Amino acid sequence: MKRSDWTWGLTAGLALGLLGLALRGAGVAYPLEGLFAQITYALGTPAVFNLLHGLFGYGELAKNLAFAGTALAWLLAHPLLWWAARRSLPLGLGLAFAAYAASAYALPGGWLAAGLYALIFAGLVRVLRRRPRAPAPAPDPARRESLRTLALLAAGLALWGQVRAQARAAWDKIAGLWPEQIGQSRLYVVSKNPAFLDPDLRGKPYALEVTGLVGQPLTLDLEALKALPSADLVHTMTCISNPVGGDLIGCVKWRGVPLKALLDKAGVKPEARFIVWEAADRYTESIALTELPAEALLAYAAENPQGGKFEDLEPRHGYPTRVLLPGRYGMKQPKWLTRITLTDKETTGYWAQRGWSRSAVIRTMSRIDTPKRNARLKAGEETFVAGIAYAGGRALERVEVSLDGGKTWQKAELRPPRAKYAWQQWALPWKPEKGDHTLQVRAVEVGERVQDPTAREPLPDGATGYHTVRVRAG
């Protein structure tokens, strides 16, 4: 391969990648998105995800690095395609179509998109290979600029972070304690997609279908859904990937259509046994009708606790609608909902196909919000050990705190829950003595069912173990 193959191949790959974003907005399948989905799905076993979380944490970094790696593979493939096309344009066209089709075949319209991308690539080859070669072996600025752009793309994706609103005080005297309720601006965001590829359905036609084993199939736009009788639900959303002590959890007040009312309107047939959700990003999940919580909600708004007003869901939280299933991890509650199908056969969900939990029932958890890990405290000065606890809707009897690494336990003050599916705040006043201290917390359900102390990774069934924080007083 010649240097010019690298230069123009990388340039073509970058141009097609950027053009693809614009075409995606017009409804054309994006092969780079399809390639990323295939790679993450293939690697999406609990063992691999636990390893990646251990290396990169539980935020967006691992996913963004994965997309950066996918983008790099995309770019590096194009010099090879360019080399083939320079030798034989029909050969290059065929290989390009095969590469794009292999990336996009699972997307709606993927085969047509592959043909379009291959034709655009062939057009770039015909136009750009006619350019005269540089007479001197000076460093190629186009190649250098392409590599610089790639580096900026990878760095930008890796540093993509979540913007969180400042917490309002709850139990004002306890600094650092999360409030009883947060808004969607502070709620964690998890998706199988890079953030910039998540569906943004604002200003676009929207219709929710209720189909399958129903007497009256429904097609409802957002206004029609909002016209139906609504209900509010204080609901603690938590991700199955949340580690012990993690922040992939939040208690939000939602508004929407009770799912039971919607199903009654459609008339579920007696032979129906399962409900299947389908989302705009092709995510699927299901649950048996017999396991459907009575409070299940098709949410279209969330309350802003600062003003008390309900606001449309943010795109990153599922606008225009998302499913809420109290007592289950977030993987069972798709965002950007487009279809509800009633069936007589079980459908294995997107991540369950890779070995994740099929039921995704929330495990009892507790977390220390304050003091933080490795905090320096003043000996003899009163402070608080405080945090939140949640058992997926099962009632908590008490929360206990250990100040000596689990040797002894003290009962903390447990604030009554705002609602059945709300997390609860807890606090223990403490005057630390000089020295090092190991703090732990555990929740106890009604009936003396103590939180599982066994340290387990989040996947496949949710993390267990006691949150532990080490501090020093002096």
TrEMBL record:
Residues 364-451 form the Moybdenum cofactor oxidoreductase dimerisation domain. Residues 203-351 form the Oxidoreductase molybdopterin-binding domain. InterPro entries: Ig_E-set, MoCF_OxRdtse_dimer, Mopterin_OxRdtase_euk, OxRdtase_Mopterin-bd_dom, OxRdtase_Mopterin-bd_sf. The chain crosses the membrane at residues 35-58, 65-85, 97-125. SUPFAM superfamilies: E set domains (SSF81296), Oxidoreductase molybdopterin-binding domain (SSF56524). The keyword Metal-binding applies. PANTHER family: SULFITE OXIDASE, MITOCHONDRIAL (PTHR19372:SF7), SULFITE REDUCTASE (PTHR19372). This is Protein-methionine-sulfoxide reductase catalytic subunit MsrP. It comes from Calidithermus terrae. The lineage of its organism: Bacteria, Thermotogati, Deinococcota, Deinococci, Thermales. The gene is msrP_2.
